Amino acid sequence: MSDVKEEVSVDCRGRPCKAHKHGGMTAAVFVLDSYLGSYWTMFIFGFVELSGFILLSIQAHLPKLRPPRCDMVSDGDHCVEAKGYKALVLFLALYLVALGSGCLKPNIISLGADQFRREDSKQSKKLSTYFNIAYFAFCLGELIALTLLVWVQTHYGMDVGFGVSAAAMAMGMICLISGTFLYRNKPPRGSIFTPIAQVFVAAITKRKQICPSNVQMLHVKQNNVPNQIPATSANANNLLHTEKFRFLDKACIKLHDGEKESSWRLCTVTQVEQVKIIISVVPIFACTIIFNTILAQLQTFSVQQGTTMNTHIIKGFKIPPASLQSIPYVMLIFVVPLYETVFVPVARKFTGKDSGITPLQRIGVGLFVATFSMVAAAMVERKRRISALHNKETLSIFWIAPQFLIFGLSEMFTAVGLIEFFYKQSLEGMQSFLTAMTYCSYSFGFYLSSILVSLVNTITSTSSHSGWLSNNDLNKDKLDLFYWMLAALSLINFLNYLFWSSCYTYNPSLLPVGPDNQHHQQLRDPEIQGRDTSKYTHV
Asked: 202: which of 47, 89, 249, 251 fits an S-S bond (Cβ 3.0–4.6 Å)?
């Protein structure tokens, strides 16, 4: 084990970190408060997003930078569209916010998680706790945005609302900067796309070669290639060979002994195994797209349902339908602490896992529960339409609360489980990339929602009848049937997930190191690199 290098982390000035001073829960909390990712990415794009909010607030406040005020409900046809420099300022501000947010969010979790050393069994235990705390902070932020911020914008105007958002962003930057000297920062790793491309190019170039039966003949030694993902931790330095995707192993076949080959023709086992990990997580990632398609319905059709229902809570007070999205977050700020303090310790006694259940199991529970959110939505929508058309009654808006509550519970399992799974399956330099896949799932889910709505309308429309969702009138549409379809798709997606998760295998180099995992610790020894490890890696 003498050849194994220890994990290299540095502070903000590039000096080696001290275990007692840098990282840990204190530094992770600063990251949570700032809502930002890796330090320098945060520092730059945090100000980019802040400038976008400031510009939006200025435009909403100054009459010269915006069209005249109008009521979209009563005067929608007469509202003046923003054109010229007014439209330019608007889109510039929106793109600044989108650019800043898009560059920050993939790194939010990874930088905080980097404050814990995975090779330290005590800190590794705290990693799962950190993911739950991070999700709790996210829920709290969403709750404030969907209640307090909506109220401020409704009563004081959009300029004040954007101003509050800018102030909150500025406070996050202050929190982040105040913890600068506590962070454990990973040195820049360079692009991961180049070594990925090198593996595929080398494998295709050597496609006619036959993989050796003895995997010890594969090229293991580092090439010292500038673009290669540096492997500075014990895990990455001794990434063990696995039997899956053997066609990629051809990239490790050395054709000429003693001759130096290009990095585009010869790769290391570690490089190839990194690519195998990325390919392996794609089916898991794909199974979460339907989950986020359901989320899209709760933010669109379910809010539209609320506009047709009785929104009175008490005399003189109405709940805005858009604020229905805050219902799951109200529940989650109580459920997440209970999950961490009650469920995890109890489950840990039965499973022996630091996180109570594995990330894959957690994702599966969430995907299964999400199905019942659509079942509840379909049943409530049918009851609402019957009451409106036949009984001339308007149901209370709280009838649609269960579908939000059920989905909120499922999101606690799926969202956190997915982030934890991606982080624990990633190597140095890959954490932010795999975390970004989580947010890509949101995008794909919403795109799929739009495609499904158009497809359903096309298939269900006839010459005499419009489609299920074509009328823009829920009393004429058949939204309940659309919800039932989504429930069926969700169930099929869950079964598909069971198949892929049962087939998924971990690379033994990425399994936790601790007193109960001495065998896997021995597998990392360079002397046994290349042995068949498939029997140790099946989930």
From this structure: 251
CB 261 within 8 A of CB 254: yes
Position 75 confidence tier, pLDDT thresholds 50, 70, 90: low
Q: How far is CA 135 from CA 301, 344, 505, in A?
A: 25, 15, 27
Could you count the other beta carbons within 10 Å of the beta carbon of residue 412?
A: 24
Q: What is the pLDDT of residues 3-56, one digit of tens each?
A: 334 444 555 555 555 544 444 444 443 443 333 346 777 888 888 999 999 999
* Spacing of C-alpha 41 from chain mean position: 18
Name, in order, each residue with C-beta under 8 angstroms of 143's C-beta and a sequence gap of 6 or more: 326, 329, 330, 333
Would you state the structure tokens that stand for residue 389, as one six-digit string? 């058309």
pLDDT at residue 524 in the model: 42
- Which residue is it, tokens 């090229």? 219
Which residues fall within 8 angstroms of residue 121, CB to CB, at 6 or more apart?
Answer: 512, 513, 514, 515
CA distance 532 to 251: 18
Give the whole-number percent of the chain exceeding pLDDT 90: 17
Number of H helices, E strands in the chain: 19, 2
User: What span, in angstroms and rounded, lies between the C-alpha atoms of 399 and 326?
Assistant: 15
Residue 390, C-beta contacts closer than 8 angstroms, at least 6 positions apart: none
- Residue 372, amino acid: F
Q: What does the pLDDT read at residue 120?
A: 66
What sections of 145-268 are H helices per DSSP? 150-156, 158-178, 193-205, 234-237
Which among 49-53, 127-131, 329-333, 515-519 has the top mean pLDDT? 49-53
Specify whether the CB–CB gap between 23 and 117 falls below 8 A: yes
| 535-to-58, 351, 357, 507, 532 alpha-carbon distances in Å | 62, 20, 21, 11, 8
- Integer Cα distance of 292 and 449 in angstroms: 9
Question: How is residue 448 written in tokens?
Answer: 């799929």
* Count of Cβ atoms closer than 10 Å to residue 365 Cβ: 17
Q: What separation in angstroms does the CA of 5 have from each of 2, 85, 235, 337? A: 8, 56, 9, 37
Could you tell me which of 1, 120, 123, 6 has the C-alpha nearest to residue 524?
1
Per-residue pLDDT tens digits for 424-466: 777 666 666 777 777 788 889 989 999 998 899 889 887 777 7
d(CA 506, CA 510): 7
Q: Give the contacts of 461 (CB within 8 A, at least 6 positions apart).
A: 467, 470
* Tokens 């989950």 belong to residue: 291
How far is it, in rounded angstroms, from Cα 137 to Cα 513? 29
Cα separation of 236 and 273, whole Å?
A: 10
Q: Is the pTM of this model over 0.70?
A: yes
| Dist. CA 172–CA 174, nearest whole Å | 5
In this prediction, residue 497 has a pLDDT band, given cuts at 50, 70 and 90, of: very high
